[in-house]
TrEMBL record:
InterPro entries: Cro/C1-type_HTH, HTH-type_regulator_Rgg, Lambda_DNA-bd_dom_sf, Transcription_activator_Rgg_C. This is Helix-turn-helix domain-containing protein. Residues 7-60 form the HTH cro/C1-type domain. It comes from the Bacteria. NCBIfam families: RGG_Cterm. Gene3D superfamilies: lambda repressor-like DNA-binding domains (1.10.260.40). SUPFAM superfamilies: lambda repressor-like DNA-binding domains.
Length: 293
C-alpha cells in the first residue's frame, strides 16, 4: 500500500473530510492522485497530515509496516536469552541477518551482533567477542543520539568496560538531556542507568554507582507517575545503602522483591533477587533475617 492510500484509509476511519485534512497542503486534483497512490508529497506536508490526523510518526510507521519488527525481534531474543535457549537465539540471529540483507538497514546488523554476544553469555564463551567492536564504533561515532542509540547502548552495555561506559555516557549526556521531557525517551534513559548501576555495583565501582544514582535522582520527579521506575530507583538506592553498611535497607529490598512477586512480575522478582544475592556475595554482606535465602 502506498502512503497516500494509507492516509486516505486513516482519514476515512477518523471521519475526516479531505478539505480539512489537506487544507493549505494539496489541491483537489493533487489530493485525488495522492490518495490513489499515484503521487507522493513532501516530508513537511506529510508530517502536517499526521498532525491533522492526530497520529504520531511512530504509530503511522507501525501501521504502514503492519507491525513493529524491532519489538518483535527484541521479544524473541529476550525470551530466548532468559530461557537460555541457544538454538532459538541462533534462529533470531539468522532472521535479523536476512532482514539486513533485504533492507540494508544497519540496525538489523546491530541486533545480530547483540544476539551473538548473548549466545556467548549463555555458553560462557567468547567466540563472538569481535561483535562488540561493531557496536562500540557505531555508538562512539554518533555525534547525536536518538531513541535507537539509547536503547542499543542500554541493551549492550553489559559487554563493555566500565571505562568505556563512562566515556560513551559522558559524550551522549547533553543529547540525552534534550530528550528528558519526552516520556518514551525519559523512561529509556532511566532503564539505561539501571543497567549501568548494575554493572558498576558488580564491578565494585561504588563511587561510580553513586554518580549514576545521582543521575537517576535528577529524573526521579519526571517519572513520578511511573511506579516501576520509582520502585527500581528505590531498589538501587537501598542496595547502595546496604553496601555502605545500612543493614536496615535489607527489609526494603526484600519488600520490593515481594511486591514484584505479588504483581506476578516473576522474571523481574527473580532478577532482583539474583542481583541482591550477588551483591551480598561480592561485598560479603551477612543478613540474619533473609527470608529468601
Amino acid at each position: 500500500m502506498k502512503i497516500g492510500e494509507l492516509i486516505r484509509t486513516l482519514r476515512l476511519q477518523k471521519n475526516l473530510r479531505s478539505n480539512v485534512l489537506y487544507k493549505n497542503l494539496l489541491s483537489r486534483p493533487a489530493i485525488a492522485k495522492f490518495e490513489r497512490g499515484e503521487s507522493d508529497t513532501t516530508a513537511e506536508k506529510f508530517l502536517k497530515m499526521l498532525d491533522h490526523l492526530n497520529i504520531t510518526l511512530e504509530e503511522f510507521s507501525i501501521i504502514y509496516n503492519d507491525g513493529n519488527k524491532d519489538l518483535d525481534y527484541m521479544r524473541k531474543y529476550v525470551e530466548a536469552f532468559y530461557n537460555r535457549d541457544v538454538s532459538a537465539l541462533y534462529m533470531v540471529a539468522e532472521q535479523v541477518e536476512n532482514e539486513y540483507k533485504l533492507t540494508g538497514n544497519l540496525k538489523f546488523l546491530h541486533y545480530r551482533s547483540l544476539i551473538l554476544l548473548l549466545i556467548d553469555d549463555v555458553r560462557g564463551t567468547d567466540e563472538h567477542l569481535n561483535e562488540i567492536t561493531l557496536l562500540q564504533e557505531y555508538l562512539m561515532n554518533c555525534e547525536s543520539w536518538g531513541y535507537y542509540e539509547i536503547t542499543l547502548f542500554a541493551n549492550s552495555l553489559s559487554f563493555y568496560s566500565i571505562e568505556l561506559i563512562d566515556l560513551v555516557f559522558e559524550r551522549a549526556k547533553n543529547t540525552l538531556q534534550r530528550y528528558q521531557n519526552l516520556t518514551r525517551y525519559r523512561n529509556e534513559i532511566a532503564l539505561m542507568i539501571f543497567n549501568i548501576l548494575e554493572k558498576k555495583i558488580t564491578c565494585k565501582d561504588l563511587d561510580g554507582a553513586k554518580t549514576y544514582l545521582t543521575e537517576l535522582e535528577n529524573i526521579k520527579v519526571s517519572v513520578v507517575d511511573n511506579m516501576y521506575m520509582q520502585t527500581m530507583i528505590k531498589f538501587f538506592s537501598a542496595i547502595i545503602a546496604l553496601i555502605d553498611g545500612d543493614t536496615t535497607k535489607n527489609k526494603s529490598i526484600l519488600q520490593i522483591i515481594e511486591v514484584f512477586s505479588l504483581l506476578e512480575l516473576k522474571l523481574k522478582a527473580a532478577q532482583c533477587l539474583e542481583f541482591y544475592d550477588k551483591v551480598k556475595g561480592i561485598y560479603t554482606i551477612k543478613i540474619k533475617e533473609d527470608i529468601f535465602s
